[in-house]
Amino acid sequence: MSKNAKIFTYPLTEPLDLLAARAGELARRKDMKFTSHGLDGEFSGMGVEGRYRVDGSELIVTVDKKPRLVPWQMIESRLEGFFTGSG
Q1: Strand, coil or helix: 51
Q2: I need a surface site. Which of 10, 13, 38, 70 has the fewest CB within 10 A?
Q3: How far apart are CA 53 and CA 36, in angstroms?
Q4: What's the pLDDT score for residue 73?
Q5: Which residues have CB under 8 Å from 81's CB, separation 6+?
Q6: How far apart are CA 28 and CA 82, in angstroms?
């Protein structure tokens, strides 16, 4: 993990296969990359790079890279929408 990485945790509120399918489709529409390997995967696009993994009933999302001028609050809000379908 890079020294500037940040970790976000979200409750897993739907089966992982449904979440991955929805997130993958959203990523395609936004010209991003999203790869799922079962219980973990990676994503990148718009200057953001990260990965996720499932730990029990939680989704752990690690952002390894982001644009310097984009605040973490904006990244967190977008991630929540991306991974929970609320955005």
Answers
A1: strand
A2: 38
A3: 9
A4: 96
A5: 87
A6: 12
So what's the pLDDT on residue 28?
Answer: 93
Q: Which distant-in-sequence residues (6+ apart) come within 8 Å of 59 by Cβ? A: 9, 10, 11, 12, 19, 52, 53, 83
Which ranges constitute the DSSP H helices of the chain?
16-29, 72-84
Own/partner contacts of 13-16, CB < 8 Å, gap of 24 or more, are: 13/84, 14/85, 16/54
Report phi then psi at 34, rounded to 5: -145, 125
Judge contact between 13 and 67, C-beta under 8 A: no
Would you place residue 85 in the very low, low, confident or very high pLDDT band (cuts 50, 70, 90)?
confident
Res 87: pLDDT = 54
Hey, what CATH class is 6-84 in?
Answer: alpha beta
CA-based nearest residue to 65, from 13, 24, 5:
5
Domain boundaries, the chain: 6-84
